[in-house]
Every structure is written in C-alpha cells, then in structure tokens.
Amino acid sequence: MKQFSSTRFIALSAMFSALVFVLTAFARVPALGGKLYFHLGGIAIYCSAVLFGPAVGGTAGAVGSALADLMLGVPVWAPISFMVHGAEGLLVGRLSNGEARIGAMAAGAAVMVCGYGVTAWMLYGVAAVPIELVGDVLQGALGIAGAYAVLRGLRNAKR
Fold first, then answer.
1. Would you identify the CATH topology of the domain 6-158?
2. CB 113 within 8 A of CB 141
3. How far is it, in rounded angstroms, from Cα 108 to Cα 6?
4. Cα–Cα distances in angstroms (integers) from residue 33 to residues 77, 128, 156, in the given order
5. Which residues pair with 39 in a beta bridge?
6. Phi, psi of 74 (to 5 degrees)
7. What is the pTM of this model?
C-alpha cells in the first residue's frame, strides 16, 4: 500500500473526485429512452485506484459519484453510489498493486454490478434487475477498457 502524507492524500483524492464527478455528470450517453446512461466515471475510478492505491481510488469513487448523483437530480442514488463506487475503487486499488491489471478492474466492476443490481431489486423489484445488470456490465466494460488504454498509454509515455 502506498503511503502518502495527509496533504498529498487530500489533494489527490480531491483531484480524482472532481475528475470522477465531471466524467460521470458531463461525459455521459443516455440509453433506454433516458432511463439509464453510460458515463466515463469508471475510467477515473480505476485509474486513481491503480495509480495511487485503494484510499485515493475509494475516496474518488465514493465522493465523485455521489456528487454527480446529487447534481443530476437523483439524490436517492447518492448514498448507494457513495458505497458502491467507493468499494469498487478500494477493491481495485487493493488488487492492482500499481499495475493495470484487468482482473483487478473486473473485480471492481463486479462489485459495482452486484451493488447496483441488489439496489435495483430493492427499489424497483426483481423485474428491474436484468435491465440494470446489462447496463452495469456494459458500464463496467467501458470503464475497464478506457482505464486500461489510459494506464497503458501512461506506461508507454513514461519509457
């Protein structure tokens, strides 16, 4: 686990929380008549977790996603996003060990898919679960592919 001073942790967490917020709230594509949307926030969650560890990844995922839900007018989802995307970033940071590991990002995506699937079932009933799962699996794949490309590009630029 990477050790940071509290100032560095706060700065990195704030920067990546803002990036998750922007990529979730503003870089999105509506689907199913606007009832769902795909966004690029997962890319920032995975990149922050891989580059700076579980604390920064978890904080960025939790804070950035919850703030996006509040700004987008869906406050009922904010605490769920806080927990689900926070756990997603935390897990990716723990499993990645600073490397762009698809397995680590897939584990984080699985946490997100399960968390939102259970929430959809609790809020809307079992009929909503298949739609939620399909959307979330695609969302997770988009995040993994985007983060992998960014992280590999950074690695190649570092050489």
1. Arp2/3 complex 21 kDa subunit ARPC3 (1.10.1760)
2. no
3. 25
4. 19, 15, 40
5. 28
6. -125, 65
7. 0.93
Distance CA 51, CA 54 (A): 9
Among the residues of the chain, which ranges form H helices?
A: 6-25, 41-52, 54-71, 78-96, 102-124, 129-158
33-66 as b/e, with b when 16 or more CB fall inside 10 Å? eeebebbbbbbbbbbbbbbbbbbbbbbbbbbbbb
pLDDT digits (tens, 9 = 90+) for 65-90: 999 999 999 999 999 999 999 999 99
Q: Which residues pair with 58 in a beta bridge?
A: none
**Phi and psi dihedrals of 96, rounded to 5?**
-80, -30
The 10s digit of each residue's pLDDT in 144-159 is 999 999 999 998 887 6
Dihedral angle computed from the Cα positions of residues 34, 77, 75 and 79, in that order, rounded to the nearest 10 degrees:
-160
As given in the structure block, the two tokens for residue 33 are 């008549």
Q: Which residues contact 152 (CB under 8 A, 6 or more apart)?
A: 100
Q: Which residue has the tokens 């490397």?
A: 99
